[in-house]
Design a protein that fits this description.
heterodimer; A: mainly alpha; MetI-like fold; B: mainly alpha
């Protein structure tokens, strides 16, 4: 188990190092481009050369990479070209906003998809099962930007119940959070529900469930005490991996609703070629992704008694 | 001569198999609905020049509501956009864009993914180790973040979108193919081919690959749905195909700022793209149901 965790963490570090290298090569391989982006297209050749010399860009590529990596690891992300402040000053508040959005989404999505998935998987092939399966296919077929359009058309244009943007310019507002959360839940719950259903349906066909039913245990007890424990291992992994999807989803949703979060920041940085901000955002995104994957894997082996006691 | 004589029946057999699988699809109503939706859009894409009431890029009358009559004849059934182009015509023409790039990108991802998966699963050893690790690293990356950074840096164009989709989807396909190959490589017919002295690539492509097609077809349908979403999202974020040619995601992006006042400009392209994705997803579900049955 310890060896497994260490290997998993090792892979996590390896992934981040490889990604950082690719990112560095993609964005900083040519110093001339970096200088043009930082100083603007109207800067003179001399200004660029001076800036490059001052920031050590005439060192060999590998020296530059390692010094960049060193700065990065110690939390010095450089300065944002667009916002004219250190990257960390823009990054952390935006990340906190996205965390709020993500937590609210999970708080609704997890109970909803687990309950629906369990109900569908308990009696495979029943009418409820069919209905839930078809609904979840339908909701996962509607991309986030489309459901954002549909929901805004209904709740903002037609019913005039909710605000159409979530800029939160006058402080935090729950009302402005409703539509973004609805969009994310709608897209994500179908997949988790289907995975839960599959896992539950598989458990329901095992011998120990048949034994439990045949020895006369009440159905409720069979489900709650025997089936759920094993059926919920897969959804745990799926939900952790869902954070990776959520990272993509928030970009679309934050852009649509003008929510000041991490996803919108990443997009803005990319569209404006704000190099240091892109690097920081990308590394944060990768860290979140690989960390949740590691937790999912480690959690899975811990929860699965067949592996734990092996 | 002998070769053509031997080939002919196998073509007939392939046709027969295709017909049988279509007949099987009729048993799954979910799959039939999906096939119907996909077929509808394919027909629309082919007939776009004939059935579109207006030129897709012609500037006619801005901000027309759905159903408005045009002074010079014709009706804007779905209204016009902010610079006065007919939305219905743009949706029809836009189906060409999506039905051209999505299958092409999926196909390109499949070629790369299948070659990687065959090599990893059949050769094993360090080839497998290296390819699997590379795949793990790419797969652990949040896809949209990857697309945005890469496309914003190298520029938005059809080719770049295909490259980005291939790069991010090939590892997933590789994993599936590798798993199938690990099972198939121990079959007798592979051993027979090895004894005959066939080359590794011939065994992989001619002996193993055709027998792995079932799960791959289902996956391809699902993946097409995702690729359509991706192309739509990129268009919506302003990283899609350059204007003015109609692209569903791009149409939504252009009208986004005024969507709350004129919902028809965004709602109809959204219905179009969602229905097409739903079609592929239902088709995949139907095909899976059939493949599980026998």
């Amino acid at each position: 188990m310890v060896v497994f965790i260490l290997r998993r963490l090792g892979f996590m570090v390896l992934t981040m190092v490889v990604v950082s290298l690719l990112l560095f090569l993609l964005l900083e391989i040519s110093p001339g481009n970096v200088a043009t982006k930082v100083l603007g297209p109207y800067s003179s050749e001399e200004q660029r050369t001076l800036w490059l010399a001052a920031h050590g860009y005439f060192e060999p590529l590998h020296v530059r990479y390692f010094s960049w990596l060193g700065n990065f690891a110690t939390g010095d992300f450089g300065e944002s070209i667009r916002f004219k402040v250190p990257v960390s000053e823009v990054l952390w508040p935006r990340l906190a906003n996205t965390a709020i959005l993500g937590l609210a989404t999970f708080a609704i999505m997890i109970p909803l998809s687990l309950v629906l998935g369990i109900l569908a998987g308990m009696r495979e092939g029943s009418k409820l099962d069919r209905a839930i399966s078809v609904t979840s296919i339908a909701t996962t077929s509607v991309p986030e930007f489309a459901s954002a359009v549909f929901l805004s058309a209904i709740f903002v244009f037609w019913l005039k119940l909710l605000p159409g943007t979530s800029g939160m310019t006058e402080g935090f507002s729950i009302k402005q959070l409703i539509l973004p959360v609805m969009v994310l839940v709608l897209y994500d719950f179908g997949y988790v529900a289907r995975m839960t259903r599959a896992s539950m349906a598989e458990v329901m066909t095992t011998a120990y469930i048949r034994t439990a039913v045949l020895k006369g245990l009440p159905y409720k007890q069979v489900i709650l005490k025997h089936a759920l424990r094993n059926a919920l291992i897969t959804p745990f992994t799926v939900i952790m991996l869902q954070i990776n999807w959520l990272l993509s989803g928030v970009i679309v949703v934050e852009f649509f609703f003008a929510y000041k979060g991490f996803g919108a920041l990443l997009l803005e940085a990319s569209l404006n070629q704000d190099i240091f901000l892109i690097e920081a955002c990308a590394m944060v995104a990768v860290f979140v992704a690989v960390a949740t994957q590691a937790i999912a894997d480690i959690g899975y082996t811990y929860l699965n008694p067949r592996i734990r006691f092996a | 001569m002998t070769e053509t004589a031997m080939r002919a029946p196998s073509h007939q057999a392939a046709l027969l198999r295709a017909l049988t699988s279509f007949a099987l699809l009729r048993e799954s109503w979910v799959g039939m609905v999906g096939a119907g939706i996909v077929a509808f859009w394919i027909v629309v894409a082919i007939l776009a020049p004939l059935i579109s009431p207006f030129e897709p890029n012609a500037i006619l009358q801005p901000f027309a509501k759905p159903g408005t009559e045009f002074a010079e004849g014709g009706t804007f059934w779905l209204g016009t956009d902010q610079i006065g182009r007919d939305i219905l015509s743009r949706i029809f023409w836009g189906s060409r864009t999506v039905l051209f790039y999505a299958p092409l990108a999926t196909f390109s991802a499949y070629v790369v993914g299948i070659l990687m998966g065959l090599a990893a699963g059949y050769q094993r050893g360090w080839v497998d180790e290296v390819l699997s690790r590379i795949g793990d690293i790419i797969l652990s990356f949040p896809v949209l973040v990857l697309y945005i950074i890469v496309i914003a840096t190298i520029g938005a164009s059809g080719v770049n979108i295909i490259i980005a989709i291939t790069f991010s989807s090939a590892p997933g396909i590789m994993r599936i193919v590798r798993g199938l190959v690990l099972d198939l490589r121990n079959r007798d017919y592979v051993a027979a081919a090895q004894t005959r002295g066939e080359s590794s690539w011939r065994i992989m492509l001619v002996e193993i690959l055709p027998n792995a097609r079932g799960p791959l077809i289902v996956d391809a349908c699902l993946r097409l749905g995702y690729v359509i979403i991706t192309i739509g999202v990129l268009g919506f974020l302003g990283l899609g195909l350059p204007p003015p040619d109609p692209d569903w995601g791009g149409m939504i992006n252009e009208a986004r700022a005024i969507a709350l006042a004129f919902p028809h400009m965004t709602v109809f392209p959204c219905i179009a793209i969602s229905s097409l994705i739903l079609g592929f997803n239902l088709l995949a579900d139907g095909l899976r149901e059939i493949s599980l049955r026998d």
